[in-house]
Amino acid sequence: MPVILIVDDDAALREGLAEAISDLGHTPLEAPDGAAALAAVAGRHVDAVLLDLRMPGMDGLEVLRRLHDRPEAPPVAVLTAVPTASNTIEAMRLGAVDHIAKPIGRDDLAALIARMLPAAPAAAAVAPAGEADDLIGNSAAMRQVQKQIGMLADAGTTVLITGETGTGKEVVARALHRHGRRAGRPFVAVNCAAIPADLLESQLFGHARGAFTGAVADRTGSFREADGGTLFLDEIGDMAPPLQAKLLRVLQDRVVTPVGGKPVPVDVRILAATHQDLEARVREGRFREDLFWRLGVVPIHLPPLRERLADILPLAEHFLALAAGSAAPKQLSADAAARLLSHPWPGNVRELRNAMERAAALARRPVITGTDLAFLRMPGGGAEVDWLEGDLPTALARLEAAMIRRALDAAGGNRAEAARRLNIHRQLLYEKMRRHGLDMSANRTGSVGNADDPAPLDGS
């Protein structure tokens, strides 16, 4: 039978996983920390590893690095109660099969092990540590984006990032650069829609002195400025057809010819983004089909904020913290949270940030209420979004976060009292607060151990 190694410092969680793994017909093997896990793998054959992220001593990412330095490393899935963009990206970049938020149900565990057993993923290089976590959001859609970033960061592959205006396409591009092998080299961003077509060629490819009237000095151009690093071409769908042809040639040959100058080889990773439907523009003859396929080697799609409801409140709190600077950030009342979740966000994350900055500047109280957000209106004065809209997991997450906020407000921030009002255990309240990105620094009664305090295997 396949041997599944469970690495977690919580004995109760290990026992629960071991029982479930035995029921699935596999042989469980337990390790309480990273050192014991490495010793277990060195001492016997292990088919797959379930690895906790936060443990005393050696953390999960370090264990993952060391496991994948071994020949014929077993496939590893990382389990954590505190999934963040950074640890998700780093785990996937280091070769993890998946990065799962605790608690994990038995059906999901069975599916995960089934994916792990056929073959182990290839190991990747060690990631730089300590980078800022600016990809806020734990929705299923955003976590999928984070996983894609982790898998693509070290590749030289051209990536096309799509999504509505304001969804955070440049944030994704910068994360791909920052977490990859080119992180120490330049990241150069060019907005193809903001520069007139007659100037964009010079901006991208440079020009030689005297190449045209007004060219009084040589210009390097963005391609050569990004040499060794990453060039991000934002709003690529607005590029004029003549420039599309020249860009295609550069992508194929990796040679740039400045206006009036000689060809120069470049080593640049290209990331592109657009809010437009490029396939439709190809059909209309407004975008070259060969360039479309060259740019879209690997696509990453950012869904609109209205489809990422679980991310709205964590993002709002993040922007309130940014607006506060070194001061204490303002908090959201339950009715303010409800209004944020009901708004359709046609401007996506950019609109949400503007709304939080406006509310933080104008609200005179430390708590922002629904009245402070009265400026949020449906386009055309339509009705608010139905709280029951969308699939069941999204609706439940929306309702659960709002109820927890209301209970905490009513209890004056006392978590034990909030848990009593909600009729759940205090530790389960902490877990749900972490899952929904709610403020964990407020007043609390009682204490929790480390950030990976266990929740029941089935999440009940």
From TrEMBL:
Top-level lineage group: Bacteria
Gene Ontology cellular component list: cytoplasm
GO process annotations (BP): phosphorelay signal transduction system; regulation of DNA-templated transcription
Residue list for modification 4-aspartylphosphate: 52
Alphabetical list of PROSITE patterns matching this protein: RESPONSE_REGULATORY, SIGMA54_INTERACT_1, SIGMA54_INTERACT_2, SIGMA54_INTERACT_3, SIGMA54_INTERACT_4
Pfam entry (one): Sigma54_activat
Domain Response regulatory: 3-117
Molecular function per GO: ATP binding; sequence-specific DNA binding
Domain Sigma-54 factor interaction: 135-361
Record-linked CDD domains: AAA, REC
Chain positions covered by the region annotation Disordered: 440-460
InterPro entries: AAA+_ATPase, AAA_lid_NorR, CheY-like_superfamily, Homeodomain-like_sf, HTH_Fis, P-loop_NTPase, Sig_transdc_resp-reg_receiver, Sigma_54_int
UniProt keyword annotations, A-Z: Activator, ATP-binding, Cytoplasm, DNA-binding, Nitrogen fixation, Nucleotide-binding, Phosphoprotein, Repressor, Transcription, Transcription regulation, Two-component regulatory system
Main localisation: cytoplasm
PANTHER family in the record: DNA-BINDING TRANSCRIPTIONAL REGULATOR NTRC, TRANSCRIPTIONAL REGULATORY PROTEIN
Primary role: Member of the two-component regulatory system NtrB/NtrC, which controls expression of the nitrogen-regulated (ntr) genes in response to nitrogen limitation. Phosphorylated NtrC binds directly to DNA and stimulates the formation of open promoter-sigma54-RNA polymerase complexes.
Name of this chain's protein: DNA-binding transcriptional regulator NtrC
UniProt organism field: Limobrevibacterium gyesilva
